[in-house]
Amino acid sequence: MNEFIADSMPAEIRTQTLDPRIETVLEEFKTKIEEACDRGHRLCIRGSGSKDWYGATRAGEVLDTRAYRGVVSYDPAELVITARSGTPLAEIEQLLSSHHQMLAFEPPHFGLGATLGGCIATGLAGPRRMSAGAVRDFLLGASILTGRGEFLRFGGQVMKNVAGYDVARLIAGSLGTLGLLMDISVKVLPKPSASATLRQEMSACDAVRKLNEWAGRPLPITASSWHAGVLTIRLEGASAAVRTACATLGGEALQQPAATMYWHSLREQSNAFFQKVPADAALWRLCVPSTTEPAVLRDVDFQFIEWGGSQRWLFAAGDDDSVRRDAVAAGGHATQFRHAKNGVDVFTALSPPIAAIHKRLKTAFDPAGVFNHGRMFAGI
Amino acid sequence: MADSSDLANEGVLKDYDESTTRALRTRVIDAFAQELRRDIPGCTLLTDKEDVAPYECDGLAAYRQLPLGVVLAESEAEVQGVLRLCARHGIPVVPRGAGTGLSGGAMPLREGVVLSLARMRKIIDVDPYARTATLQPGVRNLAISEAAAPYGLYYAPDPSSQIACTIGGNIAENSGGVHCLKYGLTVNNVVRVRAVTMDGEICEFGSLAPDAPGLDLLAVLIGSEGMFAIVTEVTVRLIPKPQVAQVVMASFDDVEVGGAAVAAIIAAGIIPAGLEMLDRAAAQAVEEFVHAGYDTEAASILLCESDGTPEEVAEEIERLTSLLVERGATRVEISTSEAERLRFWSGRKNAFPAAGRLSPDYYCMDGTVPRRAIGPLLLCIGKMEERYQLRCINVFHAGDGNMHPLILFNGNDRAEWLRAEEFGAAILEACVELGGTVTGEHGIGVEKINSMCVQFSAGERDMFFAVKHAFDPQRLLNPDKGIPTRARCAEYGRLHVRGGLLPHPDIPRF
Fold first, then answer.
1. Cis peptide before A257 (omega within 30 of 0)
2. DSSP string, A359-378
3. How many other β-carbons are positioned within 10 Å of the β-carbon of residue B346?
4. Which residue of chain A comes nearest to B438, CA vs CA?
């Protein structure tokens, strides 16, 4: 340790020593990966399996991350939590909540045991996505085991950090294709002190127009949804600001706990729209520019619109080309999110130069193709 | 490939006029000029020494190098043509925006070409309905907010050099600004980048739709110091302009108490729009310079800005004020007018020039530490002042722990400069040990390449090279910046301000 620090730092700030049990788990992971790399085996990284259905094909022997768990450090005044990838998301959210803080991107769990690693690897965010940001906006640092079993650390625990390339953010949403996530540092935010949910009836077309107009005004809208002729919005922030905005926007207030339950049901896709799956249909996730007219996508009346118009859900056959074609024509992309039809690409294909960069990145991190082979795209 | 980059490597260290290679250089540049005229008629290439001289350094003026030539690109097609031509001949390319960077990221390579994007400064579109602006890379940061202002919108990241620096350069450095604690960095505010890779391929990174498929290449492109691709078009997110802003200025008679107050504000669930601190030496220096009304008796001064709707600001200012008093502030003032708010800020924003008045030279550091380590780091720096027999004044973005210690020295005294360098390195090492980083916002460039060896293991640095390879397999785009090779974790030196003057004395620095 630097001589100057040695005498000025309180003991509790100094680097913690690694728990020997955790060290054992780390060594086991390393050995497993090195063996797989040498023998040309594949590994399928998995926490609780709550998102097993997401992505393209799953291949290889399961590498269960759940033994690598625990919060490494959390100081509310730092707005950062560092935890191991196998830590249950619920445990992290509970800890944050006891200090009136939160993961602002509202990650969906999609199952009881969802882990932090799965949350970062899938990169999925909930209703607050457009106002707060995506998973990658909050990921400050991560350590990984590469496909060769090397332990590497990128980013850190501070918000401003431009030393080296921002590899940690590249790992968010990489579906485990680049490495096994180990320790993860995420920026957290205080919970808003006030919240209100408003409802009003309007057409999809009007809803998209209103949402875009409102987003250009200083209104504390943090979530929105439209379905079946009803627009629902959530306002959050300082109580005075929420009160004023409610008066400006109008609509019927949805009371607690119904409001919280409603947004939770969107985040977890547990509401009627997502649960009533038509026969032989896939749940399509369409990400489009927020201003996209609902009519240019199919099934206007049956769309479920979120994120201020940027995310739209609909049920259609997995091999219905028109869904993806329309989304791409609107400047977006479409994912067979759930109940995907085999043999049809889950994600929208990449342009050739972007695909070439993907291939070379995969080679850099995982040359033998050990991790999550084909989970994102064939060959990646 | 290897030959050209080796030449470039040596170029950093050798003189321009070395006669052994002069003939070779002339041959290379003549051939380049000829092919450029053939491939891209009308494309501007500067090769005369007096024409390329203004490009020999960026904001880190201590490091200068004349390039082979400077291309002033005016379109994406020209960028594409130049990159293809350079790729064919193995000529390294150094991209450049306004040249305001502080870490030598745009310093030319002797055997390379500088590709200036400054002429591509068209604002392509401002869409108030979609809240986006689409820009060419040479558009100045402040010009974006100016163009969006009629719609009540603005572009949030506001690096201190925003009147001059370009959006392309902001993407290269992942620039922050005083308000990034609340509004994020460049990476959080840019949604789409169109860029040309070294092989001339046009790539779209990100899009107006969220969560583009595949790996998040946009996130790693931002902050890559111009080493992955040349940006030709950018779409940024615009946000509603806060209706009002107000500042609370608090004095503390102990730096640690001040540091603890910062932590208490955050822990109380308040994210101020700006949270800046100066120590006594810095406050005294700026007070003498701009008369901002700072308490020169205080051990540290905290500036805390709240913005939003009038209701939000009133509520937040009240909470901040009582919290600061509770946490031991010895004096608290609240700005009562826009003029007063700007006066409170003027001291902080003039800290760098004020340092220039105290001492013939100063050396600016840019480490970041966790907030809890601010107080301990300041104590640490105090001890280092005794050890190295040099004064250091401290200004910093307290909200995010980004410190700018300014080490004062006299550059005419060689021994003093060496002590300043050691002092700086010790501060950065302390930042890493305290759980932070060697650069929060200025970038590695050529300046902090040595400190990268402290922060990252050999395996991690190898992976950085592999990531660069994925974008630029020929290793021709701004090579030898940012990431040190295993072989040489060389000391390139640091920001050395002669006579107290920065290379762009007219641009604010904070």
1. yes
2. HHHHHHH-TT--BSTTSSST
3. 17
4. A163
| CB spacing of A152 vs B466 below 8 angstroms | no
Max Cα–Cα distance, chain B, nearest Å? 72
- Concatenating the DSSP letter of every residue in B103-166 gives SSTT---TTSEEEE-TT---EEEEETTTTEEEE-TTSBHHHHHHHHGGGTEE-----TTTTT-B
The complex scores an ipTM of 0.96
* Inter-residue contact B224 to B169 (CB < 8 Å): no
Residue of A80, A66, A65, A69 lying closest to A185 (CA atoms) = A80
Residues 6+ apart with CB under 8 A from B123: B133, B134, B135, B136, B139, B143, B144, B147
The whole-angstrom separation of Cα B256 and Cα A245 is 40
Residues forming beta bridges with residue A188, ordered by sequence position: none
SS3 A252: strand
- CB–CB contact B483 A164 (8 Å): yes
* Contact at CB, A216 and B152, closer than 8 angstroms: yes
Q: What are phi and psi of A321, to 5 degrees?
A: -60, -30
| Cα–Cα distance, A163 to A171 (Å, whole number) | 17
Q: Is A320 helix (H, G, I), strand (E, B) or coil?
A: coil
Interface test with B, best of A30, A122, A137, A160 (most B CBs within 10 A): A160
- Helices (H), ranges, B255-337: 255-267, 280-290, 310-326
Closest alpha carbon within chain A to B176: A160
Tokens of A59: 């291949």
N-term to C-term CA, chain B: 40
What is the maximal distance between C-alpha atoms in chain A?
68
**3-class secondary structure, A271:** coil
Closest among A77, A101, A247, A218 to B312, alpha carbons compared:
A218
Question: What does the DSSP assignment read for B424-439?
Answer: HHHHHHHHHHTT-BS-
Per residue in B21-61, pLDDT (tens digit) is: 778 888 889 999 999 999 999 999 999 999 999 999 998 87
User: How is residue A219 annotated by DSSP?
Assistant: -
- Shortest CA distance from A130: residue in chain B: B210
Where are the strands (E) in A188-266, listed by range?
A: 189-190, 194-201, 221-227, 230-237, 252-254
- pLDDT in 10s for each residue of chain A, 380 residues: 456 665 555 444 444 556 889 999 999 999 999 999 999 999 999 999 999 999 998 899 999 999 999 999 999 999 999 999 999 999 999 999 999 999 999 999 999 999 999 999 999 999 999 999 999 999 999 999 999 999 999 999 998 999 999 999 999 999 999 999 999 999 999 999 999 999 999 999 999 999 999 999 999 999 999 999 999 999 999 998 999 999 999 999 999 999 999 999 999 999 999 999 999 999 999 999 999 999 999 877 789 999 999 999 999 999 988 999 999 999 999 999 999 998 899 999 999 999 999 999 999 999 999 999 999 999 88
Distance CA A81, CA A85 (A): 12
> Which pLDDT belongs to residue B449?
84
Based on its alpha-carbon atoms, the radius of gyration of chain B, rounded to whole angstroms, reads 23
Would the CB atoms of B401 and A160 count as touching at under 8 Å? Answer: yes
Q: What is the DSSP letter of A34?
A: H
Mutate to test the interface with A, among B160, B173, B193, B220 (most CBs of A within 10 A): B220
What are the φ/ψ torsions at residue B438 (nearest 5 degrees)? -80, -20
Residue-level pLDDT at B18 = 57
